[in-house]
Design goal:
It is globular and about 80 Å long. It has 20 helices and 26 strands. The strands form six sheets. Strands 1-2-3-4-6-9 form a six-stranded mixed β-sheet. A hairpin with a 2-residue loop joins strand 25 (727-735) and strand 26. It has four domains: 42-332, Glycoside hydrolase, family 3, N-terminal domain (TIM Barrel), CATH 3.20.20; 361-546, Glycoside hydrolase family 3 C-terminal domain (Rossmann fold); 563-609, no CATH class; 634-746, Immunoglobulin-like (Sandwich). It is α/β, with parallel strands linked by helices. The structure holds alpha-D-glucopyranose. Alpha-D-glucopyranose (GLC) is lined by residues 74, 136, 183, 262-263, 399.
Length: 747
Amino acid sequence: MKRFVSFFLTVLTALNLNAQTPKYLDNNAPMEERIEDALSRMTLHEKISMLHAQSKFTSAGVPRLGIRQLNMDDGPHGCREELEWNTWSPAKWTNDYVVAFPSLTCLAATWNPDMSALYGNAISEEFAFRGKDVLLGPGVNMARTPLNGRAFEYMGEDPVLASEMVVPYIQHVQQNGVACCLKHFVLNDQETDRFRVNVNVSERALREIYLRPFEMAVKKAKTWSMMGSYNLWQNVHCCHNDALLNGILKKEWGWDGALVSDWGGTTNTQEAIYGGLDIEMGTYTDGKLRESEFTYDDYYLAKPFEQLVKDGKVPMSVLDEKVRRVLRLIFRTAMNPKKVIGNQCSEAHYEVCRQIGEEGIVLLKNEKLLPLEPAAVQGKRILVVGENATRSLTQGGGSSELKTLRDISPLEAIQQMYAGCTVMHAQGYVSGRAVYDRVDRINADENKRLHDEAVRMAREADFVIYVGGLNKNHGQDCENGDREGYNLSFGQNELIADLAAVQKNIVVVTFGGNPYAMPWLRKVPALLHCWYLGSEAGSALAGVLSGKVNPSGKLPVTFAQRLEDYSSMRFGAEGYPGTNKQVHYKEGIFMGYRWFDLPKAAQQNFLKSEHAQDLTAVGQPLFPFGFGLSYTTFRYGKPTISATGDYGWTVTVDVTNTGQRAGKEVVQLYVGRKDKSGVARPVKELKYFTKVSLQPGNTKQVNLFIRRDDLSYWDEKTHGWNIEPGTYNAYVCASSTDVRGVVSFKY
Ligand code: GLC
């Protein structure tokens, strides 16, 4: 009897609860029904309030209905320190310290999607723990110029590499109930004049290169939100660009997320209403220029929009379409019962940080100097030179800067790793403070003193480890400005050359998000590039220097000899950074390795046909896209190819570790037309890659896949994808210029 009564009471309670719980609060109800139910209960003002900022980093919910606000925060490499509700000043919390994960260019340099999955899971645990619902990142703008101040936040020059590496990051962030806000959509490929520049780009280049990573993130990762970029396309701001946001993103790609403006990227109400914008975020009253208290109601999508609806000048349906997207974002995150609690600064997160850093470091040169095994250099004198050996590279850089709990610097980690040696440090140069909006002028006398001191100490040492490169100062790798040139700054070229002149055992280690000139390259026996490694920078670097870790990173960008070798730099100011607020991507699809791969004659013809200002010959890259050395060696067998049903083709190749150490190799597959093509096409384009781990002497059979769509190009006549029948080459490569085997196939 007792059991019957308790069962009966249970059923009654459940029925009763159901009667009380409105559908929009019922986590078991279908999402779209929850949305419609919530919408039906909201007033006009409540709907409008959801569509714009209510503070620096939040947009409103509906307190009356128990619908949560959205808590957003930067950035792609970690959860930004808490700022005040309504100013850019730090809130001075004492519990918002985080792990700084490596820069996304470092993640791309791992060429290992498993690292992206680890990254996405760990960073979203930190965001969830801080109560954040929207992570303002990742960024997948393209590295068309090595001067872009924000390239360190992005994933290189190739759309396939960026797509494959960003998708797992987004999937694993969103699995934890935190939304990604993929940015900056689209063509935000420079910082100079970012608020006003209109980008002129061919339809093919737009579709095949610049939109591609965003398209894959929408179709494969289903990013829940995206951020419009400040710049314009077709002379319309991308934060409310009907053709881009309604035409391509929401209609053609079928995207159901919420489009957030960049901060202050909204410029007028009509375009904001009809141009695809869903949440207007910003800084000041008019979104850009003036600071005043609590005037978020003055935003374009606030009172002005509300009045237009009230006056019947804008149909309620237009408003509701936006509110549905914002409600969907809230139910996916802030009101998602499966959203994780997360954690902050756990050892697991530091481990992920270090692992990604270790796999992203690229060994560019090594003439029998590395690894410096601690046992082999016991008792030796190691001089560490350079400001980046001790400088924090997690502060500065703009909105991606982080307040970290624990960083281990290269110097500290080298001192730990080589405890049996005498480790000294000479700063070598000084670069000034990490400021956002101006280049810190440095004291030349101070730099000369530091230079001379370092060279004197280098003479006495057994080994020199130079740790320099770029940093997060304005004019280096920093938002809201581009680099001033292709050279390393602060007298580093002269310093490296002078150090190499007195010390043959010198390893150059550079940090930075962009390639740079290396006039001293022939003089140094070893070179590592580290991007930005985050909180475990020292550990990751020391692991590679000592041989504890065998480097396996590959370049996600081309390192050219000279700035003018880049195709984007061949068309004067018109090509970069633009004139009269117009920039022209005159290089079209021939950007990055697609340009350097062209035969000299083809390069010349292209430059002439596009009326380039500079027709001089283009130098071969210092280090090509996809390049990276290892402490071991790999042999590739002869590739074979087979058709795999209606899927496409499978290329199979044996890869053997022919060295003495375990190592990882990134096997890259590029595809290009063998037959003549009806349109200009790159020689070959990256279509697939896989990273294999091999013990010494072991061989693995590696399968590389080509899908039918991989053969397509964007046809500007039909405004759609097209595949030319005929014969194609599949290039099995160790880098974009290191072809280990070619097989052809017919379509
Ligand atoms: C900045 C950046 C954007 C960032 C936002 C919030 O201007 O362009 O990437 O997420 O504002 O800080």
